[in-house]
Amino acid sequence: MTVEAAAAVVSTESYVFQGTINKKPPHVIGGKGVYMTIEKDGKVYEDVLDAVTGAAVGALGWGDEEILPIIEKAAKNHTYSFPSIIGNQASEDLAKFYIENSPKDVFAAALWCCSGSESNENAMKIIRQYQMERGCPEKTKIISRDISYHGFTLGALSISHCGRADLFKDISIDQTNTCLKMPVCYPYRYQQKGETEEQYSQRLLDALEKIILDNDPKTVSCVLVETLPGSSLGTVPSPKGYLSGIRALCNKYDVIFMLDEVMCGTGRCNPNGKLNCWESFIGPEDAPDIQTVGKTLGSGYVTIAGVLVGPKIRDAFINGSNAVFGSHTYASHGFNCEVALGVQKKISREGLTANIFKMGNLMGSKLQDALLKEDNIVGDVRGIGGFWSLEFVKDKATKEVFPVELDIGHRFQKVCFDNKLSVMGMQGNADGTSGDIALLAPAFIITEGDVDAIVQKVIESVNQLTKEMKAEGTW
């Protein structure tokens, strides 16, 4: 081995325990707006178009100069205090902002934490304590969906169903008696021929009601779903009557209705220039009792997520112990909350939530028009607002998936990167293991020109991969 070759090996060795353990992933060097500069295997890629903002995190894009003074001010104002003993005004102000920018009386309080996984863990504990506070300790069962993902902690994995969760099933919370699963909501694959949206929704709701009844409603604590699933299914919009139907069943059987909006919420998919994704599907009368958020809350400038608590749950606590059992070290951290509030105020002031809803839908419609009728590997293009997905299939008519070992989702991600476009490829949408998708979640600041650039690069990458696979005989 030459000195140069040895140096190259050393330069790619990673000290970070993630991804491919002994090799560095591509490293971001910098960025501005919707473009990044990335170093990969010693080569620098300029002007990589960021069409997914990490994991649907970015709202303001790279290097927003208005945020830098906010970060500096927050750093001067906050070092650290343990939140259950000494709090801070920034956490109060952020909670007030979110509550006031949601429909009236839907939320009454918020808890801030550091990741979506952590927010879902906290929501589960809040719901558990809620049932105990009101004298219903027997309500322990949680119903979530097949083919779902709620985070990478053990509790969050226990309410998920995907390949990532299956790896840890032997040490997860009981999947038979506590963490139950209802059928996935996935019209592209499971809505029957001739079945309307409403009929499909009712079939799913009937299945949910049977699970509640079979398990004794007195033992069922909550039903939770992702409003618009992300990495699990690939941005499947809820069919008509589905979410409102879940709300009705929760009301009927005294069960908490929880929505996970960690990826899809906080402005990414709101039709009213506000925050909540569920406003695209249901009215305030069918709103959740508790909701988790994250990602775009801090636009990646700080690590922050949260739990939004409805008045019913808050009142039960106040009328009971009036205390939360336990806390996390960095919960409601003043620095994170002040920066996140600055981010959200800028988004609101500049109308960026309305912009991403309009530009995202434009992007989605252009991709549908360009890809679905052509001879390629794309079977479906779906989403709303600023969150869209492509689903890859071997046969458009039968929706047959590709063999798992081909890993088409991640291969498409690599092709896109070579074409200077950043997307997220995933596997497992069809049944938890097989099926391939790619996610698009650009920054809220995108223009029509950016939309055209994303669409052009996606089309180029689809055509390239389709051609390669045809030559290989894998399609």
UniProtKB/TrEMBL annotation:
GO terms for molecular function: pyridoxal phosphate binding; transaminase activity. Keywords: Pyridoxal phosphate. Gene3D superfamilies: Aspartate Aminotransferase, domain 1, Type I PLP-dependent aspartate aminotransferase-like (Major domain). One of its GO terms (cellular component) is cytosol. InterPro entries: Aminotrans_3 (IPR005814), PyrdxlP-dep_Trfase (IPR015424), PyrdxlP-dep_Trfase_major (IPR015421), PyrdxlP-dep_Trfase_small (IPR015422). It comes from the Eukaryota. Belongs to the class-III pyridoxal-phosphate-dependent aminotransferase family. This is LAME_0A01244g1_1. It comes from Lachancea meyersii CBS 8951.
